[in-house]
Design brief:
By secondary structure, the chain is mostly helical. 69% of the residues lie in helices and 0% in strands.
């Protein structure tokens, strides 16, 4: 085979991979901003939801691999409900307000790249856990489902990305 053709094919593959990776990196960056901004309401909800200082510290590790069901208390779900209500992201039945969530995500730079995907992911997770009666427990399950899906899709931010975004909102 002609080496020029091989190089050209290899270049096409590399460009394709770079283009495929760019949206994931961009959406992880957007996700870091959504996470950082959303997290700003945590202190306001600490007392109302019954979160301890240790539980609040654990929130910072939401996107890390070791954050999981065994370590997530019910109060975390209560805090997420409180935080979401403060940003008008839930309906009265404690289900996702799709339009408000879409608008919220779009409010971040390049948020339109992530909004539909994120709203759909959360909605699908809500459907999977819709039979859980306790709102706080259901939201914990929805949150963990969303987190796993975001990680699987390659759009989950790392801690450094969230910390960098957090500087813009504090």
């Amino acid at each position: 085979m002609d080496m020029g053709l091989v190089r050209w094919c290899l270049s096409c593959v590399l460009v394709g991979l770079a283009l495929a990776a760019a949206p994931a990196a961009a959406t992880a960056e957007i996700m870091s901003h959504v996470t950082a901004h959303f997290g700003q309401t945590l202190e306001e909800c600490r007392e109302e939801s019954g979160l301890t200082t240790d539980m609040m510290a654990a929130f910072a590790h939401y996107w890390s691999e070791d954050f999981g069901k065994a370590t997530v208390p019910r109060e975390f779900g209560c805090a997420l409900i409180c935080m979401s209500h403060k940003l008008s992201l839930l309906q009265h039945d404690v289900r996702l307000h799709r339009l408000n969530m879409d608008d919220y995500i779009r409010s971040f730079p390049n948020g339109d790249l992530l909004s539909k995907k994120m709203v759909d992911m959360i909605h699908e997770c809500e459907q999977q856990h819709d039979t859980v009666d306790d709102d706080c427990e259901r939201i914990v399950n929805v949150s963990l489902c969303f987190r796993s899906t975001a990680q699987r899709e390659g759009i989950a931010p790392n801690l450094a990305m969230v910390e960098a975004a957090l500087e813009q909102y504090t």
